[in-house]
Design a protein that fits this description.
Elements lengths: L4 H6 L7 E4 L3 E5 L7 E7 L14 H18 L6 E4 L3 H4 L8 E5 L10 H7 L1
Antiparallel strand pairs: 1-2, 2-3, 3-5, 4-5
The structure holds adenosine monophosphate (AMP).
Adenosine monophosphate binds next to loops.
């Protein structure tokens, strides 16, 4: 798989507001936040989409949720609540082909994401 902008962030070739790092994962603020708190947790291993997760990657992908909850506890929004989202391919709205867990928090979040209003706007 070719490098994406997220590999460049891992390698510190482009700047990002990095909030957490360990041997498997990196977390940094989303450049276009959709909630008062919005950051991404990514594996250091480049995996293009959820469809490309290999059997040996399972612990890495599970680790992303662990990191999300760890940061939520540290930043104090775990009890209030938050949402994690991982988009896949075109219909899922994926734009960067290096899997990433969105973590959104800081206000009540709407659900479901595909509302009648959005449906009519897309038609
Ligand atoms: P997705 O649409 O699920 O693939 O999400 C990609 C996310 O990456 C979007 O929320 C973007 O705002 C975010 N993003 C793209 N480039 C950067 C960057 N250089 N630094 C931080 N976040 C980024």
């Amino acid at each position: 798989m070719s490098d994406t902008i997220f590999t460049k962030i891992i390698n510190r070739e482009i700047p990002a507001e990095i909030i957490y790092e360990d041997e498997l994962a990196l977390a940094f603020s989303d450049i276009n936040p959709q909630a008062p708190v919005h950051f991404l947790v990514i594996p250091k291993k480049p995996i293009a989409t959820i469809n490309d997760i290999a059997e040996e990657d399972r612990h890495v992908v599970g680790h992303l949720s662990y990191v999300a909850a760890k940061i939520a506890a540290e930043k104090g929004f775990a009890e209030e609540g938050f949402r994690t989202v991982m988009n896949c391919n075109e219909f899922g709205g994926q734009t960067v082909y290096h899997i990433h867990l969105h973590v959104l928090a800081g206000k009540p979040l709407g659900w479901p994401p595909y509302t009648d209003k959005l449906k009519s706007a897309l038609e």
